[in-house]
Amino acid sequence: MWRRASLYIYALVAVVYLTLPFAWVTAVSFMPEREVTQQRWWPEEPTMGNYNLYFQVDGRSADVGAAIARQFPRAIVNSLIIGTAVMLLNLTCGSLAAYALARLPFRGNLLLLLFYLGSRSVPGVAIMIPMYLLMRSYGLLDTHLSVILSHTTFTLPFTIWILKGYFQTVPLDLERAARVDGCTPLGALVRVFLPVTTPGLVAVGIFAFIASWGEFLFALLFTTTIASRPVTVLASDFAQELQVPFTVIAAGGVLVILLPLVLSFLFQRLIIQGIGGSVTG
Amino acid sequence: MARVRLKNLTKHFGDVVAVDNVTLDIADREFLTLLGPSGCGKTTLLNMIAGLESPTAGEVWFDDWNVTAVPPERRDIAMVFQTYALYPHMSVFDNVAFGLKMRGVPTEDRKRLVLEAAKTMEIELLLDRKPRALSGGQRQRVALARAIVRDPGVFLLDEPLSNLDAQLRVVMRTELKRLHGDLEMTFVYVTHDQAESLILSDRIVVMKDGEIQQIGTPESIYDNPANTFVAGFVGSPPINLLKGVLQQQESAAGAWRVVGDGFACNVSQSMVERIEDPLGREVFLGARAEDIGIESETNPEPGNTPVARASVVVREPMGSDLYLTVDVGGSNVKVRTRPDSRMDRGDGLDVFFDSEKIHLFDGQTGVSLMLDR
Question: What pTM does this model have?
Answer without folding.
Answer: 0.79
